[in-house]
Write a structure and sequence with these properties.
9-stranded mixed β-sheet, single chain, 2 domains, globular, 404 residues, 6-stranded antiparallel β-sheet
Length: 404
């Protein structure tokens, strides 16, 4: 079963704990424009190490060396200060779901012991891509720190009850989407023991951050082979993780859609997709399209000429293996011929990319369910990359974990 430990976090030394101008989203949802806006909000914004630029480091070098210099400067100058004793951190995100209803996601940030996927009670649910792992590994080698947490789902009941805290938070921030992020440090020995015990009582499914988890595992193996130099024994044997009880009440799972470019000139895209789906023209790709998809049991295709509902044929469902739109679409894309695929969350952003000509087509998917995520993880299988988008995203900068 997964071992989950408290750690002495590094946190911004800010009076009152207001971190609005200092925190950032995780790296994989930050655009170039987002990066510029965040870096401009404060010279110590976490994006400067989460998505580094070579020109921001002292003395030149590549972007990873720049991140390491910035990280070291912040610690030396007291911008970041370590907590005096090992702690867990209750992290709560308050937001509105897509129906406009108020929701909360609450979990515990701690150090999750690393194990190969499928071992040690830690179960992945998505495949990863090599490029992202190479980038995160280079950054981890340079900074020797967990900058943002992976997101795990505990299959044990009772964790949510241990997240019931009182009093003002130790850190808080409101992000650009109006999500309220709050963090409480918990250091009472009895509570720490109870949290570790609950998480260790059942497997945990990696919900978000598969690249960071596998990167941390690769880094652990490197450090072990090198004799564990440069830090306390075992610091690199774990990764900072945000563990939430696996329940519908706690989770808001949204889809990640597909943008298609690079199709051969003159390709009949509708004809190619008709070999795998029953196509039916639908209305404009407005806010009502996801509901039409849900009612029809269909994906949706958006092009400059219109939009269509795509109901998978039985042969497509059988070939997909999983009861997931991402798996069904992969069957069709494999037979499509040369093309390039990008991932995008948000219906409006997909439509904008198609209308502006940035993409030749967009395919909208329905979200995976919490039950599907749990079942696929428990079965030792994996979804296609970028199947699930957990909302909202924990912010980088609420707490860091040093490996030195």
């Amino acid at each position: 079963m997964p071992r989950f430990h408290p750690f002495s976090g590094l946190r911004y030394a800010v009076a009152g704990g207001r971190l609005d101008s200092l925190v950032a989203p995780p790296y994989d949802v930050i655009s170039a424009a987002d990066r510029d806006r965040l870096a401009g909000s404060d010279e110590h914004n976490a994006v400067r190490v989460e998505v580094p630029l070579a020109e921001e480091g002292r003395g030149g070098g590549d972007k990873y060396r720049a991140a390491a210099r910035i990280w070291a400067d912040w610690r030396k100058a007291g911008v970041l200060v370590a907590d005096t004793e090992p702690s867990f951190y209750v992290y709560r995100m308050g937001f509105q779901d897509e129906a406009g209803q108020p929701r909360q996601t609450t979990g515990i940030v701690g150090a999750l012991e690393l194990a190969p996927p499928g071992e040690g009670g830690v179960l992945p649910h998505e495949r990863t891509t090599p490029k992202d792992k190479a980038d995160r590994l280079a950054l981890l080698r340079a900074c020797r720190a967990n900058l943002s947490p992976v997101w795990g789902l505990s299959t044990a009941p009772g964790l949510s009850a241990l997240c019931d805290v009182s009093g003002p938070p130790d850190a808080r921030a409101t992000d650009e989407e109006g999500v309220h992020h709050r963090l409480w440090r918990v250091s009472q020995p009895g509570v720490l023991e109870a949290i570790s015990g609950v998480v260790a009582s059942a497997p945990a499914v990696i919900a978000d951050g598969h690249h960071r988890y596998e990167t941390a595992l690769a880094y652990r193996d490197e450090r072990r082979q090198a004799g564990g130099d440069g830090g306390p024994a075992g610091a690199f044997d774990a990764v900072m993780a945000f563990i939430v009880e696996l329940s519908e009440e706690q989770l808001d799972v949204r889809p990640i859609h597909r943008l298609i470019t690079g199709l051969p000139e003159g390709l009949d895209l509708l004809g190619a997709l008709a070999a795998h789906f029953d196509l039916r023209a639908t209305g404009s790709p407005d806010d009502g399209l996801p509901a039409r998809m849900r009612d029809a049991g269909a994906l949706a295709l958006v092009t400059a000429k219109g939009s269509w509902l795509l109901r998978p044929l039985r042969a497509t469902e059988a070939a997909a293996g999983h009861d997931l739109d991402s798996s069904r679409l992969d069957v069709a894309l494999a037979a499509l011929g040369p093309h390039e695929l990008r991932f995008q969350h948000g219906v409006a952003k997909v439509v904008e990319a198609v209308v502006s000509g940035q993409a030749q087509a967009g395919v909208l998917l329905r979200p995976a369910t919490v039950a599907q995520i749990a079942a696929i993880g428990a079965g030792g299988e994996r979804m296609p990359p970028k199947t699930t988008f957990f909302y909202p995203k924990p912010r980088t900068g609420m707490v860091f974990r040093s490996l030195d």
